[in-house]
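Re: your question from the hallway

Yes, I did run it. Sequences:
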Amino acid sequence: MTRFTFPPSIASRPVWGTLLPRKGTAFLMIADAEGAEALIDLAKAAPDLMAAADVVYLPKGTGTRFSDALRAAGPGTLYIGPSFDAAEPRIKRMLADARMGLQIFLTGTEGLMGRAMALALAAGTPVDAIQTEHRGSVARRMQCVHCKGFTEDVMTDPFVCAHCGLNLFVRDHYSRRFGAYQGVCVDAEDPGVIPPQKELYS
Amino acid sequence: MTIQFNDETFTGDYTFRNSPRAIRRFPFPFHEDSYMYAVNLEPHLPGPKGSAFEHRFDVDEHYLSEMKDRARVLADDPLRCQSLPHMDLAGWDTLELIMTSKAEDYPDLFELHRDGDRWRWINRPMGIDDTFTFLDKTTLPYGPLEYITRQTQGDYAILDQRENDLWMDAGMVTTQADWSLDFDIGMSFMQWHAPVPLAHQLGVFDRALKFLLNLQQGAPVRRLNWTMTVNPNLDTSPENYHKWGPEKTTLTPENVGQKQHLRVELQTLWRLPRSNAMLFPIRGYLIRLEDIVTVPKWGRRLHRVLRDLPVELATYKGFIRNRPMIVEYLSQFDDGAPTSPGCFPD
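Structure:
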């Protein structure tokens, strides 16, 4: 399943869009895993745009399943990296060098889009110059409200904070500054009573 | 009159108490026997003498102990006070508004002497006498927002106004009803209110935002909000929820009158002159149920409000598990007699 219709939620939860060709002076595309398919779709609709684009791609365990096809779609430059953390200095540099008219395309998991959008906004990119499209896993990037650590790719509710070990429930409240949802201790009022884990959206 | 400041704690042994005078002046938030979200903004004009609304920034008997508690919380978690880089000027606006208001309203407690940009601030209760240069933060021990709100009761959010919206871009938040400045900083008005149930559908936030965008300098407004807190804990933060959450299980029919508190927020909104930002002080007041019922009208009314409150609100306000015990306790003080309109005691 690479496309998912998210149920309606509260006002802070982002609503992801569909990538569309746009005019611009430069194009930065950042994708992980199945997000490559959205870029390939975009390239079919606008091959010239892809030929002018700088693409940062994180296969995230998909190997060459999408990366070969992405390369074949003819991006201007293509960087394939092992993780967001590894790619982050490069993305920051690209954003720092950006001029007026840069168009940004983010696609893949919510965690990837959230982190990349937070970097772009912090670098001063206007929000209307950023497009998004969700593809692939519905896992969330969560911030523990207690220890402030981030846990990536959370698929269950509740889950265990990767930093402090508290059992956290998954809220829909979302911070664009962090690119993350809020995780809150699930057994604060009944210590030790942890509800059974459920897969998100199940 | 001179205020006698209490020496009390808001954590650990919880020695916080309200004097009989503090009980009488408590800003009871219910003007009728039921409650639903509403914008309910009114001009923040001087209220009755001795009331919590008499002055622009109320100073009461809990002042010194609340400031000690704030310093404790900040030492533990410095992220409770944050200001995005473009909010410095709004911080100075805030400092000026609070200093000038307090010096005028409480001349026996605070003094402000201004000689151009050279300002001398005297806070007598806290033993502070500082001279600094206005708009030069290197002349203060903290940034302007942190400096003045370490000396002023209540939480503070500063909202930047742009793109027809309000953005929570700075704040000092150590006495909150379970929301995180660190998480919400940078959010728009609808985003930071997103978790509130029912009110969005009622259109409350649309109307409030429309009104606030047009707020004028010199015409502050106020409203009351409320929740329920077990023990007089000011820092009911999500950050520390795993520490205070278990206290909710300590209520018994025998101790509910002492341990269960009504928590009221006197919220005011001020347009700031230089930055055009908006200052949003959220001043919290706590009172034990057993102190509320000493005012018969309040006892009757609180019983009816809590008994009839929609489940969503009781859940969001965090007392759904204890509601039956609270309502049972309060029912002893409700003889069914009619109550008079308005919030003040008869």
